[in-house]
């Protein structure tokens, strides 16, 4: 039997969890203000008159306001003088002020009003007759359409050149939160492995993982892929329930949030004794992951990291490119407040790697009709090169070590 797999129960593993988040803190108000000021400087450089951030992760990044997307516009408007003004329904005023404080500049609209007219009036009062407006890339279409109708002379551009430029370079405080939440999910992965037994349901494992994430002090699982056997060759897993059998490859990909920041870790191993085929492909996957990590150096284009992983796989007869059997998706994605965010380790992305960038490293091998293996860990860039958040899995028959 693979080391660290099976031999326990969900009840025992949950009872052994002791949550301790005392060594990590939320992002401070001072850091959020520094983010606003950086965005304002970028706006000045690009000639942007206003940036509009409806409900979503960028709104939270700059303001600390967690808000649910809906058909009612609630948004922050940032101007190049680093001033934040908010637009929201009048009945939500007190709720916003719980986070933003009594002194926040909030412009209110009633249910029969068009909130985009409120935005127009604010911009005109601020002196912007015809404006360049940067709108968050995740804004719903109705917001874009409403602004286009009330401001027909305005140029509405994608705000990602501002938001992503801020968000993709993580601070020391962000890295500390991300380290904690990734450590947390790795511990959940270890515990999930221990509860496996022949016949266990993939749904049962996913329920346990959700409980364990919350027991450690994280959020509920933001996603959870639990695949057995041939289904492990499906990158995002099947929808149907599966039941574990001796000799199955197991793939578990999951994460949660802490102070808004995401974890995302995948482990692949065998329930029982690995075959030579499983062992060889697992080692190849680990080698491709290591090659991607080694290629990630300051100033190197992102696409070269993806190319380094694919070169290892192609040399072993997989691919090329996205062909199966092989790696059907990019090698890695940025991560932070969104599980997938700028920038990406993919062919065609020539953005140079820079300090503070954070990535998944997951050059999955998919062999349809047999199994798939994905080892996913994350790293961040320092001036001296890449650093793992969580180090590589140890071995196919000891994925979490032999201790």
From TrEMBL:
PROSITE patterns found in the cross-reference section: PROLINE_PEPTIDASE (PS00491)
Peptidase M24 domain boundaries: 177-383
UniProt superkingdom: Bacteria
InterPro entries in the cross-refs: Creatin/AminoP/Spt16_N (IPR029149), Creatinase/aminopeptidase-like (IPR036005), Creatinase_N (IPR000587), Pept_M24 (IPR000994), Peptidase_M24B (IPR050659), Peptidase_M24B_aminopep-P_CS (IPR001131)
Transmembrane segments: none
GO biological process: proteolysis
Domain Creatinase N-terminal: 35-168
Name of the featured protein: Xaa-Pro dipeptidase
């Amino acid at each position: 039997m693979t080391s660290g797999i099976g031999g326990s129960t969900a009840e025992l593993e949950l009872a052994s969890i002791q949550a301790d988040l005392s060594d990590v803190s939320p992002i401070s108000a001072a850091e959020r203000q520094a983010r606003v000021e950086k965005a304002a400087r970028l706006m000045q450089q690009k000639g942007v008159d206003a940036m509009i951030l409806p409900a979503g992760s960028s709104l939270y990044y700059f303001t600390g306001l967690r808000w649910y997307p809906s058909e009612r516009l609630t948004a922050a408007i940032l101007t190049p003088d680093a001033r934040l003004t908010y637009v929201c329904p009048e009945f939500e005023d007190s709720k916003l002020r719980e986070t933003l404080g009594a002194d926040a500049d909030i412009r209110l609209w009633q249910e029969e009003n068009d909130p985009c007219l409120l935005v127009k009036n604010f911009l005109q009062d601020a002196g912007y007759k015809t404006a360049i407006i940067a709108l968050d890339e995740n804004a719903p279409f109705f917001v874009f359409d409403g602004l286009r109708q009330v401001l027909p002379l305005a140029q509405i551009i994608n705000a990602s050149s501002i938001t992503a430029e801020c968000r993709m370079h993580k601070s020391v405080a962000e890295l500390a939160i991300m380290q904690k939440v990734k450590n947390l999910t790795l511990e959940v992965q270890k515990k999930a492995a221990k509860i496996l037994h022949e016949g266990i349901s993939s749904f049962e494992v996913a329920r346990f993982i959700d409980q364990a994430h919350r027991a450690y002090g994280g959020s509920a699982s933001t996603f959870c892929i639990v695949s057995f056997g041939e289904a492990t060759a499906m990158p995002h897993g099947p929808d149907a329930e599966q039941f574990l059998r001796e000799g199955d490859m197991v793939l578990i990909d999951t994460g949660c949030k802490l102070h808004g920041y995401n974890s995302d870790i995948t482990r692949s191993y065998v329930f029982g004794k690995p075959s030579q085929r499983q062992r060889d492909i697992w080692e190849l996957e680990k080698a491709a992951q290591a090659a991607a990590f080694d290629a990630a150096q300051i100033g190197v284009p992102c696409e070269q990291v993806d190319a380094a992983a694919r070169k290892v796989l192609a040399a072993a007869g997989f691919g090329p490119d996205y062909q199966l059997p092989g790696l059907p998706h990019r090698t890695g994605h940025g991560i932070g407040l969104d599980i997938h965010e700028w920038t990406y380790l993919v062919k065609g992305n020539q953005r140079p790697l820079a300090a503070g960038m954070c990535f998944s490293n997951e050059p999955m091998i998919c062999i349809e009709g047999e199994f798939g293996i994905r080892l996913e860990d994350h790293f961040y860039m320092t001036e001296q090169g890449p650093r793992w958040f969580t180090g590589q899995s140890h071995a196919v028959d000891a994925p979490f070590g032999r201790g």
